[in-house]
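@channel anyone free to eyeball this complex?
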Amino acid sequence: MTSGLKEMIEALIFMSLEPLSIEKIKEVLSDVPAAEVEQAAQELQADYAAPGRGIQLAQTGGGWVFVTRPEFDAYVRRLLKIDRKSRLSAAGLETLSIVAYHQPITLSEVSALRNVDSSYTIKSLLQKKLVKIIGRKKAPGNPLVYRTTDRFLAYFGLNSLDELPTEEEIAKILGEDKTVDQA
Amino acid sequence: METPASGSYQVRLEVFEGPLDLLLFLIRKKKIDIHNIPIAVITREYLQYLERKEGINLDREAEFVLMAALLIHIKSQMLLPREEPLAGGEDPRRFLVDQLVEYQKIRAACSLLKEKEDEQLSLWAREALPPLPEAGESDLVEVSLFDLAETFFVLMKRKEGENFRVVRGKNYSLEGEMNKIIAEIEKQSVIDFLDYFNARETLEEAIVSFFSLLELIKARLVLAVQEQLFHTIKVWLRKDHAARSE
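replying in thread with the prediction:
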């Protein structure tokens, strides 16, 4: 194995302002065989998973990124003088998951699924760059069509849309609900 | 007569975001099979909620009323005697049930995503790099080439209509302009990007001095900074400039 490869990758991830994809790493380290890069990246992740560190290497939003460990949240917030991070509103989360599961989707389709006018909510999701406009639908009125963004994935710690909660997981929740009700 | 003390309603202190939200709550409360909803029962319950406006997001009142109308419509459809059964044994409730089933899934997905959101919110990446807050220091944003170029082009566009048609036989050199900028900053300690280029006489001079400014930034001799978003861009000498140029 190329010596210092793991450290090289560590430096690249450290300097990247967004999750650094394995493709990008391979592109930068073009003289190293791809398989070696992947192996070194895995080893690096294992290193960081070991106890004794305040940061960890997370795979999110389609790439690698250094994040603080959850147990130090309070101290990081104290450092940055941030009382708490703002969460999505219930309406925002609902609209976002509809877009995530039904994309590409138009505003009127979202509103129909919620039975609630969602134009304001979509606008605020657009501002937060959690959804984006990808074009217009060839339908009466040529409505705008929305999709989720990479920032959406990173926000929920997902690597791709495949990692969204599955039908089974959802069914499990619904099943649990039923047993609770019957109890 | 319903009173809170009668206990027939366990009022949850939550606001129903929409009519489906309220319907699902009622269905669960009454332990009703979602695929076989007794429309009369659910409509009565629903209307009671609506009348008391309890836990209902009032911005959404119209949408709640619309759902009430739909429920009553479905009820009337079911009461109407029909000469022939609806095509394919169509149940007037079908449309509503489909909506409820889908909405229920979305809500379940939401609760899973909410857990993930909570998890992620306790992790901090350096992506945003918020500046460490320090008393008395304004937030300085070092501007990118694109900010500079954009400001420059806006400026040039504005000047287009003015007296740029003057032709002069003067040559401008990068070095000459770089020295001019440095001299200007040394004199005033800081220059305003917009003012400086506005004062250039010709388009040629403006362009050459813009390139010179880029060179100076690249050589790390000066610093282009925006004190606040949307404010003008200011150019300073770097503190270590003196040492470097000696």
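from a first look: The beta strands of chain B are 141-142, 190-192, 222-226, 233-237.
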